[in-house]
# Entry
Amino acid sequence: MMHRRLLPALTVAAAFMPAMAMAHPGMPGHTHGFTDGFAHPFGGLDHLAAMTAVGLWAGQQAQGGQGARAVWLWPLAFLALLVAGAVAGANGLVLPGVEGGIVLSVAALGWLTAFGARLPVAAGAALIGVFALCHGAAHGVEMPADADGLAYGLGFVTASAALHLSGVALSRLAERAGLALAPRLAGLGLAALAPLLLAV
# Structure
């Protein structure tokens, strides 16, 4: 089926996408439309890490019961609150501690993935939503005044969804290949990365 071919392709694309620097300090070229909005999440290591971690952790929940719902609901919760935070930020609402919340999101999601933690679907969605609000608020504040908000936002959300999908794909493919330890090691690496983000 088509989606079985698409998942590995997105996984490979996300794995090799460059992450040169944090996105928040004001990288040049973040302007205007869909293409720039799509590129923005790939320009920041913090965003790549957190959004991929959401997918990795959600993918680990897929074994039976309500956990299978988390595979889709957790990424959707992130996207919904990401948009809400971005709209708030673009309209002048400044949330305190946003940058700290972003670093915490990378650390927490990394550790949760490393331990294969299982939470009730609603609790996981709420936690992920709080982190997404921080990411969205930061992006809303930094969005250029001359950007086409809708096109830029659609690009940003599309890229974020691709990163989530890549994380889910990595998790599911690893489990099917008998390499369930791989997502846990990836989570450990993400958790170890979090302190480095403070220095960027």
User: Anything to note?
Assistant: Helices lie at 2-15, 34-39, 45-60, 67-90, 98-114, 121-142, 149-176, 181-198. The first helix runs from residue 2 to 15.
